[in-house]
Specification:
The chain has 354 residues and is of the alpha/beta class. The protein is built from twelve helices and eleven strands. The protein has two domains: 231 residues, Rossmann fold; 95 residues, UDP-galactose 4-epimerase, domain 1, CATH 3.90.25.10. Strand 5, helix 5 and strand 6 form a beta-alpha-beta unit. The site of nicotinamide-adenine-dinucleotide has 31 residues, from helix 1, strand 2, helix 4 and strand 5.
Length: 354
């Protein structure tokens, strides 16, 4: 990796990756292409380890002229593709941007890479960041997803990511584009937009608002601290086999309700209120088509590349909650942005959690 095009680097995981990569690799230069949708923010990119090796470009991954220009102007040798519409609930309310960004956007980047690297594919890599959600939903006693599981996506979000994964793989087989794919489980950590479970619960708790748990709260996700994900992605780019897919997961699989209770317990300790935050927990109407359980078999990345998560759920959650408590101005600024209240109203009012 020398000249890296990061897409979606103003979003949650992309921004964490930009911070991480500038810190751990003094040779890389990053061009960060991000449309700054509701989920992206330049406030996620302050205090970078080295500003001089980071160029931010506001633009759309579906804009092929722009992507082609960036590829040649900056002699890009590595693409790390995060940009996406990423929230399942939004995909239920309005799937169109998911198809456009996640499928058409990925196609646009693949075409740009195919053209730019047509003469020399040496040292090049297209890394696609995907999700465990493409594999569908597990019952409680099913074995975890391995890379060989069939794709059975069940939401517009996961279906659009599955479509993108298929395209990426097709470009390897058809055009020998040097690709890798990682399918990762649910991330949490600093800079996560407060529409997702962990930051939403922290934000609502700090404001004394209801903590909306969908359905019975006995759904299961496999939680991973975002820095562990960033480390895994770098390892796959540096050492992974072109054409290969790697599952990434944290091995932490609490029920949603237990995760929320743990968040409340940590908040009770570091920011005590009159009553325990757990008293704010409210069961609300379930998500349509709600996947019951995700779990990842990470033996390939562990055995082939030596990756393992450094954070367990307790230490990762503590670090995350402390970060949100220490950054009230970030929370204030993100949650006062146009559209946030409207989204909360749209998603939660009918569930009786407003
Ligand atoms: P996010 O929603 O926080 O950030 C997405 C970023 O992409 C934003 O900065 C947004 O402005 C940008 N973007 C959206 N449309 C764009 C477009 N057309 N052109 C350019 N930029 C655009 O998402 P995230 O949680 O950081 O997820 C990043 C990637 O990781 C996604 O591909 C997602 O599918 C995948 N992923 C996420 C998780 C998770 O738990 N968050 C888990 C596994 C995989
Ligand atoms: P989310 O963070 O949206 O991630 P994903 O749907 O991609 O897994 O949700 C994580 C889990 O938490 C999921 O089972 C849905 C549930 N959830 C709630 O119970 N309440 C909420 O307000 C949200 C946003 C999610």
């Amino acid at each position: 990796m020398k000249n890296v095009l990061v897409t979606g680097g103003a979003g949650f995981i992309g921004a964490n990756f930009v911070h991480y990569l500038l810190l751990v690799d003094a040779r890389v230069r990053i061009v960060n292409l991000d449309l700054l949708t509701y989920a992206g923010s330049l406030e996620n990119l302050t205090e970078l380890a080295d500003e001089s090796r980071h160029l931010f470009v506001e633009g759309d991954i579906t804009d092929s002229a722009l992507v082609n220009r960036l590829m040649s102007e900056h002699q890009i040798d590595t693409i790390v593709h995060f940009a996406a519409e990423s929230h399942v609930d939004r995909s239920i309310h309005g799937p169109a941007p998911f198809i456009q960004t996640n499928i058409v956007g990925t196609f646009t980047l693949l075409e740009a890479a195919r053209q730019a690297w047509a003469k020399d594919r040496g040292g090049k890599r297209f890394h696609h960041v995907s999700t465990d959600e493409v594999f569908g939903s597990l019952a409680e006693d099913d074995p975890p997803f391995s890379e060989a599981n069939p794709y059975v996506p069940r939401s517009p979000y996961s279906a659009s990511k599955a479509g993108a994964d298929h395209l990426v793989r097709a470009y390897f087989h058809t055009y020998q584009l040097p690709v890798t794919i990682t399918n990762c489980s649910n991330n949490y950590g600093p800079y996560q937009f407060p529409e997702k479970l962990v930051p939403l619960m922290i934000l609502n708790a700090l404001h004394g608002r209801p903590l909306p748990v969908y359905g019975d709260g006995r759904q299961i996700r496999d939680w991973l601290y975002v820095e562990d994900h960033c480390e895994a992605i770098r390892l796959v780019i540096e050492k992974g086999q072109p054409g290969e897919t790697y599952n990434i997961g944290g091995g932490n699989q609490p029920y949603n309700l237990d995760l929320v209770l743990e968040i409340c317990a940590i908040l009770d300790e570091i920011r005590p209120a009159e009553k325990s935050y757990a008293s704010l927990i409210t069961h609300v109407a379930d998500r349509p088509g709600h996947d019951r359980r995700y779990a990842m078999d990470v033996s390939r990345i562990r055995n082939d590349l030596g990756w393992f998560p450094r954070y367990d759920l307790e230490s990762g959650l503590r670090q995350t909650i402390q970060w949100y408590v220490d950054h009230p101005q970030w929370i204030e600024s993100i949650s006062s942005r146009e559209g946030f209240e409207a989204w909360m109203e749209k998603n939660y009012a009918a569930r009786g959690a407003r």
